[in-house]
Write a structure and sequence with these properties.
It is built from 22 helices and 17 strands. With 636 residues, the chain is an alpha+beta fold. The chain has a six-stranded mixed β-sheet, with helices on both faces. Strands 1, 2, 3, 4 and 5 form a five-stranded antiparallel β-sheet that branches. The N and C termini lie far apart (63 Å). The structure holds 2-acetamido-2-deoxy-beta-D-glucopyranose (4 copies). One 2-acetamido-2-deoxy-beta-D-glucopyranose (NAG) binds next to helix 6 and helix 8.
Length: 636
Amino acid sequence: MMRIRNSIPPHLPLFFFLLLHLFHPSQAQDQIQPNTTGYQCPANQTGSGYPCRTYAFYQASAPNFLDLASIGDLFSVSRPMIAQPSNISSPNSTLAPNQPLFVPLFCSCNFINSTFGAISYANLSYTIKKGDTFYQVSSFSYRNLTTYQSVEVVNPTLIPTNLTIGVSAVFPVFCKCPNTTQLRNGENILISYVVQPNDNVSSIATMFGSKPQSIIDANRKNFREFDTIFVPVSRLPVLTQLPVNTSAPPASSPAASVTSRDRTGTVRGLAIGLGIVGLLLILVLGLWVYREALFKDKLAVVVGDEEKHKQSFATGTKGSKEAEAKLMANVSDCLDKYRVFGYEELREATNGFDQRCLILGSVYKGTIDGEVYAIKKMKWNAYEELKILQKVNHGNLVKLEGFCIDDDEANCYLVYEYVENGSLYSWLHEDRTERLNWKMRLHVAIDVANGLQYIHEHTRPRVVHKDIKSSNILLDANMRAKIANFGLAKSGMNAITMHIVGTQGYIAPEYLADGVVSTKMDVFSFGVVLLELITGKEAIDDRGNPLWTTVVRAFELGSDQEKNKRLREWLDSSLLRETCSMESLRSVLNVALACLHKDPTKRPSMVDVVYALSKSEDSGFDTSDDTMDSPLVSAR
Ligand SMILES: *[C@@H]1O[C@H](CO)[C@@H](O)[C@H](O)[C@H]1NC(C)=O
Ligand SMILES: *[C@@H]1O[C@H](CO)[C@@H](O)[C@H](O)[C@H]1NC(C)=O
Ligand SMILES: *[C@@H]1O[C@H](CO)[C@@H](O)[C@H](O)[C@H]1NC(C)=O
Ligand SMILES: *[C@@H]1O[C@H](CO)[C@@H](O)[C@H](O)[C@H]1NC(C)=O
């Protein structure tokens, strides 16, 4: 049975009602068991619609099927016959892994015998090669568009366990032709599609521009992943193909370079920021894949080129169903995790994207059904950020609630939880009548450390945030910290190490020098945030000197006593008015200094950091210190 997504898109309540109805246990006995040997068709072919021309959705795959010639051979069709419906201009081009294709099939209804009746398939002849098994070829070469059981049924003379190399076998690729009812409803093609692990009926419908109910009607009710299903469409959707080996960086790329001068001036404006162009740019997940072994001992960057083959969002094709279908195809694996908002819904929520709802940059505050959200408008491909965010889920990371694709304007909107109390930056460096006390600051530090520990240790592949700084740390109503600004990874980046992103004053030296990306660069930036918490100073001063260089130098030498004295000089003046323990301050400073070690391998991991900070929290407050009824101390 398919998974039902947890957030129901507003336009589909009827569908879900029907779906629940269909899956009601009392009807379970009515369900047909999955038939692995093939799909029945009317044996009497007169007036049945058979045979017909149809299409299979097929994705190119390494190592053997990355060009149209080999895929053409597999399906007994010529290269242009695949190139044309798949919107590929050159039949000679190489394909990217998972590049989507429509492969034409000649679908017929074939009577097998009285046990199996008549089943519909495209009769494809395949020459057995060394090492082939029916299972291997159907599951991987044909990507489950047929099953080994069915191959056995249609090849009664072949012995599956003793296949002779060079012998020809029939591989029955599953297909269906529309019957008269379906044709009357304009369902002219039934695309053969293999259900993928994260699919659900509505995501499949969106992907092909079909209707969930049509899909349900045309198929067995209880299909599962890797089953072939038939998606009724009036005509073949258009696939958007990213030109291979060409990078397509989005026009409004937020790539903040090292030299961007976004420090004080613009940063000041950041109240409740999620994404602000020029400030962010973060992790490029999938571009850095760490081999476990390499990771532990030395830093290594493995640049996956998978990303450069990623499909780009289509632009410009106004209003067409196909455009939406291909946009949605890009994010289809995110559909079941997130609420899909309607464009009108977001427009209403923000008074038509009124300037007064603008939080910062392209982030709007909006209210939908009484819930407040932060809505980030993106011109570029949001697929990367979605892909990262769907992997992460942690209380100390700003949560993505949903998204919206407006194909008229080719915009994408990411909808996040709204974090009430703005950025840590604004609490530390802007004029506020209230200041965070030490206990609060320590909590913030531990929250951020927990969030980072989560992305570093509990995601596969590991996520490196790449832009940890106080303006990317948001405080909620309970003054708990959440890390914001994930994603913005770009497709089409080849020379990743040359493309330095981040914010001056926070960037780890090895990344600046060599472009080495590792979790330890987040550890470094976190060290800078700890310094901000302790000193109340900005990460970079008015003359452009990084805070960390001066602090590290100040605490390099000297006795404990001298260091304590120096710490008092560096301390945020509002903390001086408190009765927080020197021991706690010193231990947090020591954590910061360890994080700022020039040699990334000598920096602690976030696991160590969380541990050390939690200990300084335990030691930091004697119970007599109960003056902190309010978490805030007055600044004046
Ligand atoms: C085909 O289905 C099997 C499970 O039946 C699965 O393990 C395999 O990964 C699928 N093949 C592809 C290419 O998805
Ligand atoms: C396998 O097939 C070959 C040729 O068809 C035959 O000579 C051989 O005896 C068969 N082996 C087994 C174990 O059936
Ligand atoms: C055509 O197929 C649909 C879906 O499988 C079915 O509901 C309908 O009854 C069929 N119509 C005819 C005329 O067989
Ligand atoms: C075909 O793909 C290209 C990208 O390779 C895209 O720009 C174009 O819009 C697509 N064709 C149609 C008809 O959409």
